[in-house]
């Protein structure tokens, strides 16, 4: 799995093609994850008002998507990652499935924002 992600990452780095081809390749790599716009997540979180956690480089907010799905929206602070590195990380996280890990639903990426969208744990953690 890691080998495949590394190959895809290298392909993205080396590709010198048009924007449309690059977006198509990224969509093939990221598979079923949803790409959210910043405005969609701002609406879902009521402009990022309900903070439910965080750490040194991220803040987590509670949100509700248009379809009623409750989510945890992790806003990453100035990670220094480029777009390709972030997408490779999103792809890796999105393909990991384990009973003790929260499922990644999607992401948001633009010039200033790097956001991960996870399923919301109603009781606050996996052990409850």
Summarize the helices and strands and which ones pair or pack:
Elements: H1 2-14, H2 19-30, E1 34-35, H3 38-44, E2 51-54, E3 58-64, E4 70-76, H4 83-94, E5 104-109, E6 114-119
Parallel strand pairs: 1-5
Antiparallel strand pairs: 2-3, 3-4, 4-6, 5-6
Helix pairs in contact: 1-4
**CATH homologous superfamily caption:** Phosphorylase Kinase, domain 1
- Classify the helix fraction into a percent range: 25-40%
Which strand order do you get reading across the main beta sheet?
A: 1-5-6-4-3-2
Give the strand content: 25-35%
First-last Cα distance: 31 Å
Query: What is the H/E string?
Result: HHEHEEEHEE
In short:
This protein has one domain (2-119): Phosphorylase Kinase, domain 1, CATH 3.30.200.20.
Task: Summarize the structure in words.
This protein is an alpha+beta fold and 128 residues long. It has a single domain (2-119), classed as Phosphorylase Kinase, domain 1 (2-Layer Sandwich), CATH 3.30.200.20. It contains four helices and six strands, in the order ααβαβββαββ. A six-stranded mixed β-sheet has the order 1-5-6-4-3-2, sandwiched between helices. Strand 5 (104-109) and strand 6 (114-119) form a beta hairpin. Helix 1 runs antiparallel to helix 4. It is globular, with a radius of gyration of 15 Å.
């Amino acid at each position: 799995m890691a080998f495949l992600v590394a190959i895809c990452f290298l392909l993205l780095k080396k590709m010198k093609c048009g924007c449309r081809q690059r977006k198509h390749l990224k969509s093939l790599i990221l598979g079923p994850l949803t790409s959210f716009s910043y405005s969609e997540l701002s609406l879902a979180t009521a402009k990022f008002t309900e903070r439910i956690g965080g750490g040194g480089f991220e803040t987590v907010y509670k949100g509700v998507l248009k379809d009623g799905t409750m989510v945890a929206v992790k806003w990453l602070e100035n990670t220094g990652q480029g777009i390709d590195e972030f997408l490779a990380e999103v792809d890796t996280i999105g393909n990991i499935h384990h009973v003790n890990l929260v499922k990644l639903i999607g992401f948001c990426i633009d010039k200033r924002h790097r956001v991960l969208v996870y399923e919301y744990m109603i009781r606050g953690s996996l052990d409850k």
